[in-house]
């Protein structure tokens, strides 16, 4: 039911093809993260992944994908504006811009 609602929203908001591709990519990433984590936990600990841990893994994978995409977009915007800071200042700047929308952060 949730996937259908996501696809419907993405189909209305974006092109149907891109919305479906985004949902498939996120689903793929979540399945890979859960599989790798479950395999690693089964090899090291004598217990399996419970519901809370599974939810944390899913949300972490989704947040990582979303933040990575947002950071890539921000780096492209900074390059387009001709304001690429040094590597050392780039990560705090991107984090600030992501957490506080509408502000450009310290230059």
Distance between the termini: 44 Å
SS content category? mainly alpha
Mean pLDDT: 70
How much of the residues is beta strand, in percent?
Answer: under 5%
Main sheet record:
none
Radius of gyration: 18 Å
Please provide the count of β strands.
Answer: 0
Instruction: State the order of secondary-structure elements, H for helix, E for strand.
Output: HHHH
- Which stretches are low in confidence, meaning pLDDT under 50 for 5 or more residues running? none
| Proportion of helical residues | over 70%
Total of domains: 2
Number of helices: 4
Quick structural gist:
Helices cover 79% and strands 0% of the residues. With 107 residues, it is mostly helical.
